[in-house]
Design brief:
By secondary structure, this protein is mostly helical. It is built from nine helices and two strands. A two-stranded antiparallel sheet has the order 1-2. Helix 4 crosses helix 5. The longest helix has 44 residues. The protein starts with a helix and ends in an 8-residue tail after the last helix. The C terminus is likely disordered.
């Protein structure tokens, strides 16, 4: 055999040996890897505490990676606590109200739809017209859940949180005033109480705004009722008949929201023995709603 033939034969033999060795290494490596995986699986099955610890470490590592990439904590369930729903999923009447309010008050239809749905549910439970509830929200806060008046009325329904703290206990405390649904539920409860005391819708609105002992509510009830009529028409319903007070106003009103909103000025109460003494000259004017603080202990539950 010539020298060149011997060289090529040697090269082939070397390449074959290397390939066989590489395949043997790979085969043995896979066998070892399989044994390691089987041993790990058996260990985790027998020791659930190790499995749980490993899962926690893996989740922590993944969360840290996401925070590093996004620059903010990752909260997959954030949408679950958002006050929002698809308005197209509502009944026809509620959807019409939601879209009308969204357009007029320039707020997103999804959160408005959730509030409309909740108002209809609360209206059914409390024998109140849901469009009246929505009209109060519109006049009180323009659907701003973080609104606050100069005298401390807060949230969608402008409830005096410091006065009605007990009503927020079932919602986790007074900070729930800024949760739209919680504020709406508390506001409806107070509204129902006001209407029961006054004996009529219009009279209840005067109590609600803190003007039951004043000669005028500054046009508050008229504004709410007008918006109520517009909402009913937007929903394709008939306009409600005018609602006037039929019962004499009690001596101790319930004040919930601030009368000193733009365009509404609470007139001064007439001088009488039952009226509180006037504030000193130069003191800031306060809404009649502030009187509720003094009456807090006298408030009757529903």
């Amino acid at each position: 055999m010539p020298a060149s033939g011997k060289f090529f034969a040697a090269v082939r033999t070397f390449a074959t040996d290397v390939a066989n060795g590489f395949l043997a290494i790979i085969h043995n490596s896979f066998a070892l890897l399989g044994l390691a995986v089987a041993f790990t699986a058996l260990t985790l099955f027998a020791r659930p505490d190790l499995r749980d610890a490993g899962e926690d470490r893996l989740r922590s590592w993944l969360a840290a990676r996401h925070v590093a990439e996004l620059g903010a904590p990752v909260e997959p369930a954030a949408s679950d606590r958002a006050t929002a729903t698809n308005p197209k999923s509502l009944p026809k009447e509620q959807a019409a109200v939601a879209f009308w309010l969204s357009k007029k008050y320039r707020v997103a239809p999804e959160p408005i739809a959730a509030l409309v749905s909740e108002a209809y549910e609360l209206g059914k439970l409390n024998q109140l017209d849901p469009t009246l509830i929505l009209a109060i929200m519109a006049i009180e806060s323009n659907f701003n859940p973080f609104a606050q008046s100069a005298v401390g009325a807060q949230g969608l329904m402008q409830v005096m949180t410091t006065v009605h703290t007990d009503k927020y206990e079932n919602f986790g405390g007074h900070n729930a005033a800024f949760d739209p649904v919680s504020n709406l539920r508390v506001g409806v409860r107070v509204l129902k109480e006001c209407i029961a005391r006054a004996g009529s819708i219009e009279g209840g609105l005067r109590f609600y705004v803190g003007a039951a002992n004043l000669p005028s509510d500054g046009g508050y009830a008229a504004k709410v009722l007008a918006e109520h009529q517009r909402l009913r028409l937007a929903a394709g319903m008939r306009a409600a008949p005018l609602m006037t007070a039929k019962a004499e106003a009690p001596k101790q009103p319930v004040q919930v929201a601030d009368t000193q909103r733009p365009g509404v000025t609470a007139p001064a109460a007439p001088a009488a023995a039952a009226q509180p003494a006037p504030a000193p000259a130069g003191a800031p004017a306060a809404s009649a709603r502030t009187e509720q603080i003094a009456l807090q202990t006298q408030e009757q539950p529903l």
